[in-house]
Amino acid sequence: MRQHRITAAALSSVFMGLGQIYNRQFVKGSAFAAFYAFAVYFTINNWHHAIWGITTLGETQQKLVLVGKIYKPVKGDHSIFLMIEGLIMLFIFALFAYLLVMNAIDAYRGGKLREEGKTLNNIKQTLRYIPDKKFAHLIITIPLIFVFFFSVLPIIFSVMIAFTNYNNTHEPPGKLVDWQGFRAFKDLFSLSQWAHTFFGVFTWTMTWAVLSTFTTFFGGFAVALLVQQKGIRFKSFFRAIYMVPFAIPAFLSLLIMRNLFNAQFGPINSTLLKFGIVGPEWLSDPFWAKATIVIVNLWLGFPLSMLLIIGILTTIPRDLYEASEVDGASALYKFRKITFPSVMFSLSPILIGQFAGNINNFNVIFLLSGGGPTNSEYQFAGHTDILITWLYSLSITNGRYNFAAVISIFLFIIIAIFALFSFRRTRSFREDDLLR
Amino acid sequence: MKLNKSLILVSALSLMAASLAACSGNNEGGNASPSASASSSSATASSSAPSESASPEATDIEPEAGAKLVVWAAQEQKDFLETMGKEFEAKYGIKVEFQKVGSADALNKIVKDGPAGVGADLFMLAHDQLNRAVQAGVILPNDFYAEDTQANFAKTAVDAVTATDGILYGYPRNIETYLLFYNKNLAKPEDLASWDAIKTFSKAYNVPAEKKFGIMWKLDDSYFNYAFMGGNGGYVFGKNNTDPGDIGLNNEGSVEGLKFMQSMKEVMPFKVADATPDVKTDLFQKGKLAIDMDGIWQLGSFTKEKLGFDVGAVPLPPMPNGKSPKPFAGVQAYFVSQFSQYPNAAKLFAHFVSSQDAAIKMYQMSGVVSARNGLDQDPALKDNELVAAFVEQFKNVEAMPSIAETASFWTAMGAVYPQIWDNNADVKATLDKAVSDMKTLIQQAK
User: Fold this and answer.
1) Three-state DSSP string of chain A
2) Which of B143, B274, B338 is nearest residue A264 as measured by Cβ atoms?
3) Is the pLDDT of residue A399 over 60?
4) Where is the segment annotated Disordered (chain B) (predicted)?
5) A71 touches chain B (CB under 8 A)
6) Given an 8 Å threshold on Cβ–Cβ distance, is B412 in contact with A380?
7) Is residue A14 within 8 Å of residue A107, measured between CB atoms?
């Protein structure tokens, strides 16, 4: 009696659908078989080219041939296209393999049911069974495929670039790109003074991420508390007016800020001078340049925190405060024990997200200071450069796409570690019912 | 009937081509307008239609049937290119569509869009991107019109759009360089006779508290600062900027040149980061800056109508050691995409928009002076004092290097100026470090 499940699974792993046919699920089985035939045909047609493309990244170089007076282009291989196409093909083959395994498992289950003397679903029942019982699976399949192609594939692709010599002297379609193994990693680390620059830039990146996250958070918190005070009039006006910076695209206001903070010609220092104060060298002095960036970022970022916190404040039950007032709690005590924990409970995941985002906050640095002032101790980096802007100048300005890929791997690891570690330690993830 | 019609068409086209050839032949006079000759030739064609005139020596390349062109250029060029596009369509029946992609972005965009088949047929690039474009295999050589281009354009421009493989690729539009503009109400020509004169003038004129300054330029940019190095015997790469193994940026001449630049600090009391181009141009336009080192692209905006005062221009005066600074020149040129479905039509259009008549129209519509030979003698431009100053400056310029390694030059040198200007660092030591940085970058690109 045990025979059925083994036979069905074996038949199905040899030829998809055979096991189902053996189980007398003829329509399902022949549909599987037809799909299998298509998959085999597809694989035979594409396997060789995909493997060739992804291992060699192309062999014929594009060139120009002189015909009479006119140069005619002769198309060559496009390494990057071959790489992406190969990657997509490998994904599809993996999908086929997965379906083959699933089909064998299905045949096995069908056989088992037969052994138990039960009747199998006929095609009508199967077609009804899927939307009835497996509705969630059915619906999630489509976004899952999208995630595969639009998130996972680009990540794998950019990791692969790190192992090639894709840069401005090896740029398809004119030139072919080759696999280089760990050369880009080695080159980056062998840059003279690399370690010193990396350490300096990394320290500032982290300092910046902490500073920018906390200033915007507590700035927003303070304003939110003030706006929500009982005696404040025109609350909606205040809430609206603070959102104005948010209505202007950040990159525009950053470029304007850059002119405002011009130490010699900008209006800020001119105004200060009218009060007899000599303003600082906003963007030329290393310390002030860093301070300027944090200040401008605070101005750009606090409205969002403010809005979020106002939203959370309104959800805190009034009776908590009333009860604590009856017990004689001070304002500070109420803040420490009620307001702050409630806000943190809801906001800490967002805060971590903002922190991770600030590590890669390219805009503010690039548009405001451009990484400057330059630091003579560093290689190709200025005092305010964070990892991502430093790598922008190193890789994009200089056309080293493979370097960019190496660094993006590093940044990915750093941020992933931070995010995972802190998310898992956040209370809102561990205890769902902390407050209520 | 059908045959007859196509015969007429062919003969009309060839006649048109012949008359065009005639007018491009004697274009030193530059009077024959192509639209007039085209209409007269089509008139004769329709009346007589001599079938044997389909001459093999037609000087225009034959465009593909049903061609449609897309051109990428900067927004400022829109009016000119759209006007030319209409004329081109009227003449050859080929539609031309303008898309706003500046010459700084065009290369990156065509590398991505070209192979996918959605890029332009024709785009503008500055010549310093030429060798990267050739390496990336995105442009077609200027083959059909090569002799015409070589004969009619300034040598600097032709050399600049010829790649290191010796093949001419571009259809030059204009040469860009910089010189000293001055406000005629504030400074006299003798104040700009030498850099010492400029210093003396600026010392008397500067009032930092009121933001009044004698002279300014964009201090953080090698494009401008290189003039003092290049004029003194410094060079970027050896063998006419083609040998990345030989860097001349820390030789004696370069060091001396930058030391001279450093000495200008006494009359330019501001930090590198603060002297941004918008600040500088703003001060000049408000009449607070007397002398402004800026480029030919300002011709259209530095006019009496727009500024309210007369603007003069002089080439960069000699340095105290008697040598003249040698500014960088960039050549803006049209390039035909290798991915174009209609390469012949694109070449035809590139040739069309760089003709003598187009050049004059371009000057009138957007203030851009073409790099065609003898254009400064044209009545339309002859009396312009600023154009004359630029023509004078063009005699002493150096085309920017265009090999792919040049990126390392901009990156490494960009770090030099804040050091020597804001921190008074030693010029020789700073340049030595920049050169060693460049070598690292170049070596790693292999």
Assistant:
1) CCHHHHHHHHHHHHCCCHHHHHCCCHHHHHHHHHHHHHHHHHHHHHHHHHHHHHHHCCCCCCEEEEECCEEEEECCCCHHHHHHHHHHHHHHHHHHHHHHHHHHHHHHHHHHHHHCCCCCCCHHHHHHHHHHHCHHHHHHHHHHHHHHHHHHHHHHHHHHHCCECCECCECCCCCCCCECCCHHHHHHHHCCCHHHHHHHHHHHHHHHHHHHHHHHHHHHHHHHHHHCCCCCCCHHHHHHHCCHHHHCCHHHHHHHHHHHCCCCCCHHHHHHHHCCCCCCCCCCCHHHHHHHHHHHHHHHHHHHHHHHHHHHHHHCCHHHHHHHHHCCCCHHHHHHHHHHHHHHHHHHHHHHHHHHHHHCCHHHHHHHCCCCCECCCCCCCECCCCHHHHHHHHHHHCCCHHHHHHHHHHHHHHHHHHHHHHHHHCHHHHCCCCCC
2) B274
3) yes
4) 27-60
5) yes
6) yes
7) no
pLDDT at B48 over 50: no
- pLDDT of A186 strictly over 90: no
Tell me the nearest-neighbour CA distance from A355 into chain B, angstroms.
29
The residue in chain B having the minimum alpha-carbon distance to the alpha carbon of residue A374 is B415
Mean pLDDT over A217-242 rounds to 87
Q: At A429, is the pLDDT very low, low, confident or very high (cuts 50, 70, 90)?
A: low
Q: What is the pLDDT of residue B22?
A: 39
A78 touches chain B (CB under 8 A): yes
A277 touching chain B per CB within 8 A: no
Question: For residue range B132-187, what is the model confidence (pLDDT) as tens digits?
Answer: 999 999 999 999 999 999 999 999 899 999 999 899 999 999 999 999 999 999 99
Q: Which two tokens stand for residue B210?
A: 């009121």
Q: Is B433 part of the contact surface with chain A (CB cutoff 8 Å)?
A: yes
Name the nearest CA neighbour of A104 among A208, A220, A15, A223. Answer: A15
Q: Is the pLDDT of residue B229 over 60?
A: yes
**The whole model's pTM is what?**
0.79
Measure CB to CB from residue A284 to each of B271, B408, B419 and give the nearest one.
B271
Tell whether B193 lies on the interface with A, counting CB pairs under 8 A.
no
Taking contacts as CB-CB distances below 8 angstroms, the residues of chain B near A376 are 415, 419, 423, 425, 430, 433
A372 touches chain B (CB under 8 A): yes
Residues 120-159 of A with CB under 8 A from B: none
Read off the pLDDT of residues A134-177 as tens digits, 9 standing for 90 and up. Answer: 888 889 988 998 898 888 999 999 999 999 999 888 888 888 99
A167 touches chain B (CB under 8 A): yes
C-alpha to C-alpha distances, B446 to A178, A183, B135, nearest whole angstrom: 12, 11, 13
| pLDDT of amino acid B60 | 82
pLDDT score, position B208: 87
State whether ipTM is beyond 0.90: no
Chain B residues lying within 8 Å of A398, measured CB to CB: 407-408, 411, 441, 445
Average pLDDT of chain B to the nearest whole number = 85
Query: Which residues of chain B lie closer than 8 angstroms to A187, CB-CB?
Result: 444
Please check whether residue B188 touches A, CB under 8 A.
no
